[in-house]
Structures
1.
Amino acid sequence: MTAVSSVDARTGEVVATVAAESTAEETAAACALAAAAFPGLEAMGRHGRAALLRAMAGALEAARPEVVRVADRESALGDQRLQGELTRTCFQLRFFAEVLHEGSYVEAVIDHAGPTPMGPRPDLRRMLVPLGPVGVFGASNFPLAFSVPGGDTASALAAGCPVVVKAHPSHPATSQLCFDLLASAVRETGAPEGTAGIVHGGPAGLGLVTDPAIRAVGFTGSLRGGRALFDAANARPDPIPFYAEMGSLNPLVVTPAAARERAAGIAEGYAASFTLGAGQFCTKPGLAFVPAGSPLREELARLVAGRDAAVLLNAGIGEAFSQVVATLRDRLEVVAAGPDPLSPVLFAVQVPALEGPLLEECFGPAAILVEYESEEELLGALASLPAGLTATVHAGEDETALPARLVTVLREKAGRLVWNGYPTGVAVGHAMHHGGPYPATTSALHTSVGASAIRRFLRPVTWQDAPQAILPLELRDEPPGIPRRVDGTLLTP
């Protein structure tokens, strides 16, 4: 058996053996246990599952010092960042508990029997129901918020779907610790055994995607890894939804008016954004479109040159970053860079040369200034970009014409449009959309953050002329205390 080791991200030393890689039989057993848990988890109802999510948040909070300590050792992200990430992780769990209590996510609709212009209509009642067991892949760059106890897990469990998580090899000890805490909450609330499961190792990931018990998958990671697993999900005899978030370039545009009005402030915000978390955010604004000759260039050069080298999440990410930077150095002008190979680095290019490897995400503290000469050149370059998660516009105080043209182009390229801000940091709320057209994700229709993330793990079912005793509580005549659309009218409790 291959050992799964915990590595200190700062020293590169192996500090513990966490587990052995899951065998095919162990992966299948975890999936089978999740399938067996599915009816019982759904039967807990909305309020029972809300109690489960709250218990999970409480277990994580109670172990906060140990969770942060282990996560910092494996990621080198630092105490402050990880304290905030754990707070976000617990908030996500409690947020979905509130989503369950409120209940509108089931989209309950009732059309009573009666006459219509097309003839008599039967009694029709429709709502969303859980898909079944879900596979979740932890992300390297968020060992808590997008990993074992992260948003995919929270939204799937809220939907009523048991979860089997593929632990990320960058933080296996953190993953196992968090899983053990979630499992304690499962026992505490009386949820079925198998509500939460975990597997380790690369082969287990493929086994998870192809196991017949798994009905959907949530993934956060690289384009190459996500695409390979997406293809495997679609090659099954029964293809399943594979919701992959795979990163993006996230263009940021500074109009000439904005550059004239507040170059120093934009430069400060941009430098902080693309180096945040050592540039290891899927929302990092990797391309900044600025007017040629703008003082932004000099301001950014000063800010970037003074930043310290980063400790990246693991040796593989560090090596890949160094290779990409070496390639870019051969093609581009270096505006600013520190002395260390892992120091933040800022490149510059003119719009006509924006092609090839310049249009691929660089995971790490690097960014490219794209200098444009005219509005038409800018709009043409934006239209040629691959789609992404976000697009940002910095406009002048009273500017309207160019920003309107920019939004027309950028709306087709991203799932979130940011105005006079920076895309790093994704708030958890009802209005958030964290997704975008391919290749940012495999489904532009869905989000992995916010209340609507639950929609990925639900499917619609209509009951026709069903007796009251057969109907789910949300569709019975007695008001269930949730918003419903009845005979075309939206009713709220």
2.
Amino acid sequence: MLKIIKIPFFALCLFVFLGACSSKTNSGLALDEVNKPADYWYQNMLKEIRNGDLEKADSYFVSLQSEHLNSPLLSEAMLILGRAHMQEEEYLLAGFYFDEFMKRFGNEKNIDFVQYLKLQANYFAFGKQFRDQQLLLQSINEAKAFDQKYPYSRYRPMVDTMLLKLELANLSLNKEIIKIYKRKDKTNAAEFYQQKIDENAWIKDVYYQEAHSPWYQRMFEW
């Protein structure tokens, strides 16, 4: 089973920073371009998002954050970049920006919305061809935590829908793992995953259609 490569928080920060530096060098952005107003970095970030150059947009954000750490434009820039990376299916980077927003600017008025965006990024990341069960279980736990923290949030119906689909995906994935272990005569391992299914017996009564990967994708799975 192929898995999404887990990127630690520090590595993500380094990735964004190095990507920004590389973008500045390769795209012709002058390396000595410093000491600009916050609006200069922000507007250029928006321009590069419209141009479809998210690496360069990231580099402008790095400059905005470096030179104007307390700028009110930072919070909006984080959300915009998070959504932009989601549109490009760069879900890990999108999650990084949403996490940073919640750490720095999260409050009772916006935290449920940004947490919803983060869950959405995880949800779509799992929907790609790489299936990481750890990411799946993390997303399930975060969705359950969302329901407990924000029971009256306007985003709860969407989160509950994602949670059900993630639970079904986990059930399907556990079934696939059991099949693999049975084929390899690893009875104990198969029983371990069967126990995981039995612990959530209610999900087995939900009618759903099993997902099937295209034949050319199945060649590279497991």
3.
Amino acid sequence: MKKLLPAFAYLFHPILIPVYATLFYFIITRNFFYNHEIYLVILQVLTLTVLLPGSLYYLLRSLGIIQTIKLNSNKERRLPLACYAVLLMLLLRHGLATFVIPELYYYILGVFISILMALLLVLFNYRASLHVMGVVSLTLFIISISAYYHVNFLNLIAFFVVCSGLVASGRLYTKSNSLGEIILGALIATLPQLLLWFIWLVPVF
């Protein structure tokens, strides 16, 4: 367990979650899109949520603005969170907005709102677990796609619920987050996604 629990933190690192969600979405809906549309959206998501944030991290570290990838202090979290929010806004306004993919659009919008909430908490000297925020939002996205397309993903949902628990346990085990930060991370992931369901998911029923 000493090696397993920390491994989940790397597997479900927050910046990887939007890519996981995008890949999952197109695996389910690939018959509704042309291949070039799928590749373009995946490339946009990968660039704006993984490659650019990764490059930004190394830049900030080389400048001495942040010390580790864990972003242990609230002061270190402010600029990376703000920059990530800007990148998500660019993805929403100039990437996903050009395609008719409301499910993915509203999921990323929910993540954007969660990041803003995490940034707001940091400004008031509170921390939320970004790892828990990411994996919980992904779990909710899978649930929403299951409901939207009337496909039974019960086993997959159960798997990601377990993964959410393991990520949370790993963060507690390594003392990377407190229980309060775990709960805050889950809350700021859940609230935006649930509220946005009333815009795109609930009207379907």
4.
Amino acid sequence: MQQPRENNISWDECFMRMAHVISERSKDPSTQAGAVVVDAQNVVVGLGYNGFPRGIESAELPWERTGAFLDTKYAYVCHAEENAVYNANKSTHGCKTYCTLFPCNECAKTLIQNGIVEVVYESDKYKEVDAFIASRRMLELAGVKLRQYISDFAKKE
């Protein structure tokens, strides 16, 4: 009798690769982020990437990283984690989020308020920035499990 294949990828690897793939939908010229929300049965509930709100064309607002607030992308972009929750096809209560970047403070609030119980992130390159320090503080206080996972997909890039 034939045996099942043994070298399949883990759920962590699968969902982090999916986060990377969905990040490629982003039109942001400097940062492409992706997120995947999955339930306790490892079924995908929502996908998201960073971009402007629905109905706003990518050329209608600035993509600048520096300058006056209203002249930068930061006033307008919805982050991947937010979009994954907004795009969810059912409640995200009790779900886990896989994201290519550690979530900022605004995304942390969205995740907490929507019942996310675990955040699996890849990059934590902004961990010394106040918004990410605040995020970590809120997530930990809310009892959200935080875990870094470096995807094999990212290692190949």
